[in-house]
């Protein structure tokens, strides 16, 4: 079943059934855990469980038995977040493992906790809500505010319009309302991410659509001098589209901010939906405004079968690369007088930089001096586009077909460098579901 023509070979999808939002991605004791909204018995949304997969390296995933199921765990098991209670401030530890806590539920937050390293979960206090925002609410995400030593929760709610509520807790169990940030654009699955910029800590607040603002968070309230939202990703950003409901991993052993999101536009005979390839977030000032840049995580290199490199090539006619059904390709073009378009043709799909409009696949992207960089992740039914070291990030579900990839330059251009790597399948390494 992993060999279906549009099944991603390095994008995670469930062995069978429906998936949507990633939930509570985290690292614990050398293992990356990925939970996700899952209907194990059908190909459409409904009958929601929390599926579970683990990885040693963020690219090779083993699907585990279901983590939360409606016949054992109370409440609506909709999206949420998770955290590792490394110091056992909750007092829920039992045995050798630190408690892993999952927060879920609608119109009140339900807590589930694991004492076996994140594989099975108990319900805290018979499902009593540990936090109850006003109005309709869902999708809690818990995070640490290091400057004040506070544990904080951001949760979406609709009272007085769309926005998020912030709660604080000393122990993960007792939560106090702290503040509200209203925003008409901010719908579902919020995240608040600390990112450094020029020696200062900034905070990125986003919703499920991938729209975000950058500002300050003092442990209780979020403020921003730039309230107009930007976008992480320029694919269609609605449920079932090319990019939705991204979350960052918690408790990582390094200082990276790594995000993964849902792509709902792909399906096969026994599965529906996949997740994006993980990206690393960084902040950079662009035109006077802090902007999030997204690049594939460095662990992509572990999947390279071979690497072919071309440098200093005059590109007047198309060049064809074969064996490109599952690959990554990176190119740096020197734009010359007369160059109108440069880029790639991947099966029926063209990814082009237009010099007249300064856009990559329709997304604004000024050249870096007189050069343009384009990277593609090509994976049967998934195509992810990166431009100028993460200035542009776009995810697409598309039936790409075949294994041919052409690099082109209308009007001619100088190809400074091109690196092409077919990629191993993550499903050919013994990683199989045991659910």
Automatic annotation (TrEMBL):
It comes from the Bacteria. One of its GO terms (cellular component) is cytoplasm. Residues 11-283 form the Glycosyl hydrolase family 32 N-terminal domain. GO terms for molecular function: sucrose alpha-glucosidase activity. SMART domains: Glyco_32. Keywords: Glycosidase, Hydrolase. One of its GO terms (biological process) is sucrose catabolic process. Belongs to the glycosyl hydrolase 32 family. This is Glycosyl hydrolase family 32 N-terminal domain-containing protein. The lineage of its organism: Bacteria, Bacillati, Actinomycetota, Actinomycetes, Streptosporangiales.
């Amino acid at each position: 079943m992993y060999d279906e023509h549009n099944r991603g070979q390095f994008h995670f999808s469930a062995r069978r059934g429906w998936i949507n939002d990633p939930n509570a991605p985290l690292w614990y004791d050398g293992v990356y855990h990925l939970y996700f909204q899952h209907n194990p018995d059908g190909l459409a949304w409904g009958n929601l469980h929390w599926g579970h997969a683990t990885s040693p390296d963020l690219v090779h995933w083993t699907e585990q038995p279901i983590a939360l199921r409606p016949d054992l765990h109370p409440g609506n098991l909709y999206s949420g977040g998770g955290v590792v209670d490394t110091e056992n401030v909750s007092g829920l530890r039992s045995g050798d493992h630190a408690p892993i806590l999952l927060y879920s539920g609608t119109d009140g937050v339900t807590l589930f906790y694991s004492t076996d390293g994140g594989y099975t979960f108990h319900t805290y206090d018979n499902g009593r809500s540990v936090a109850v925002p006003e109005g309709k609410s869902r999708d809690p995400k818990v995070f640490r505010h290091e400057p004040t030593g506070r544990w904080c929760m951001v949760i979406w709610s609709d009272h007085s319009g769309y926005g998020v509520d912030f709660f604080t807790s000393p122990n993960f169990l007792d939560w106090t309302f702290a503040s509200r940030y209203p925003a008409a654009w901010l719908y579902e699955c919020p995240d608040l991410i600390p990112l450094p910029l020029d020696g200062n800590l900034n905070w990125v607040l986003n919703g499920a659509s991938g729209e975000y603002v950058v500002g300050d968070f003092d442990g209780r309230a979020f403020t921003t001098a730039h309230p107009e939202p930007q976008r992480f990703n320029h694919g269609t950003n609605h449920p079932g589209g090319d990019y939705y409901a991204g979350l960052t991993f918690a408790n990582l052993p390094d200082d990276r901010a790594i995000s993964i999101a849902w792509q709902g536009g792909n399906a096969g005979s026994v599965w529906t939906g996949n997740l994006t390839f993980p990206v690393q977030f960084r902040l950079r000032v662009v035109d006077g405004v802090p902007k999030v840049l997204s690049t594939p995580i460095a662990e992509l290199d572990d999947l390279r079968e071979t690497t072919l490199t071309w440098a200093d090539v005059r590109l007047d006619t198309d060049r064809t690369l074969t064996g490109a059904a599952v690959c990554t390709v990176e190119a740096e073009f020197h734009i010359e007088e007369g160059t109108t378009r440069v880029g790639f043709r991947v099966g029926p799909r063209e990814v082009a930089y237009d010099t007249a409009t300064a856009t990559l696949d329709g997304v604004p992207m000024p050249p870096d001096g007189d050069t343009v960089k384009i990277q593609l992740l090509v994976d049967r039914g998934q195509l992810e586009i990166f431009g100028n070291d993460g200035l542009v990030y776009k995810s697409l579900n598309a039936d790409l077909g075949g294994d041919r990839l052409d690099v082109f330059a209308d009007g001619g251009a100088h190809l400074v460098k091109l690196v092409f790597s077919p990629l191993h399948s993550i499903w050919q390494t013994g990683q199989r579901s045991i659910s």
